[in-house]
């Protein structure tokens, strides 16, 4: 009898695992989390970790989303002095006290000379020679020219002004009114200012993303976030690239919710509870209230903060790999049976392309297995009754 019971239980467990389902059980996701890639069955699989959605997690994710550009790039060019660069066009105005000097006549005591900074960073000025302009401010260039004119011109004075600053251009492209190269002034422009100079965004802020590329660093943020958080409206720097993308935000709802679909946000932002509601909520008779999950590729700074840098490095050694944008796979677990879930869920932001998955209760698979086993038994019994 003991052997029979043991065998029956094994068949029952294996049978429950084999029944059809819309996705993995919560236990399957929990068991798979954190496992090295080489331990996965049937070859390599994606390595990920699970993080519970609590007050700390919601605050960390929400706060980082607000200050991502400032954290990654700093304030930008506001505190740096504007310097002359290669390709800039300058106007050098030389004044003399006398009327018969090198640069003065009876009609005018000044001469304007337009120069273009060459690839070697220099440009020629009459009676001065090759002057290094690149890397100097306008005042430093003025002082350098003035020093060379002493004892050559009659009580000279010099003014150096910008005619065109091609070395201080920022490329603004994408979903803007007039994609173009925007020349920066001397005061330092912000992201919103250069976008406005390029004709402004063509779509609603909550459906437009701004990507800033500077050297090897990039950062992408919702335009609405820049509008609502002035600290994100950082200053751009020469050679920056600003790309505005129109991308209506959506998330995908799967599992034991009434609406399995790709669902548009339809507003400035959506929190986790709103996402569940937009999907019709969980099916009462099938849902595992402790098994709501959000699958996401997350920013590395957030992953390191949530997991601790040590755990993050350990997972990387075990095969955790970023996507093409440098983000890492992570799964957020949400327990709707918790008393404070209706508060915590309001602070956790859903992001574009998230997958919200509601797992089924294990009892659903048990019921399916029982029905699968019972069906042939009922058929056999009915057949036996007909024979008898």
Automatic annotation (TrEMBL):
<dbReference type="InterPro" id="IPR003715">
    <property type="entry name" value="Poly_export_N"/>
</dbReference>
<feature type="signal peptide">
    <location>
        <begin position="1"/>
        <end position="18"/>
    </location>
</feature>
<protein>
    <submittedName>
        <fullName>Polysaccharide export protein</fullName>
    </submittedName>
</protein>
<keyword id="KW-0732">Signal</keyword>
<feature type="domain" description="Polysaccharide export protein N-terminal">
    <location>
        <begin position="81"/>
        <end position="161"/>
    </location>
</feature>
<dbReference type="Pfam" id="PF02563">
    <property type="entry name" value="Poly_export"/>
</dbReference>
<dbReference type="InterPro" id="IPR049712">
    <property type="entry name" value="Poly_export"/>
</dbReference>
<dbReference type="GO" id="GO:0015159">
    <property type="term" value="F:polysaccharide transmembrane transporter activity"/>
</dbReference>
<dbReference type="Pfam" id="PF10531">
    <property type="entry name" value="SLBB"/>
</dbReference>
<dbReference type="InterPro" id="IPR019554">
    <property type="entry name" value="Soluble_ligand-bd"/>
</dbReference>
<feature type="domain" description="Soluble ligand binding">
    <location>
        <begin position="170"/>
        <end position="220"/>
    </location>
</feature>
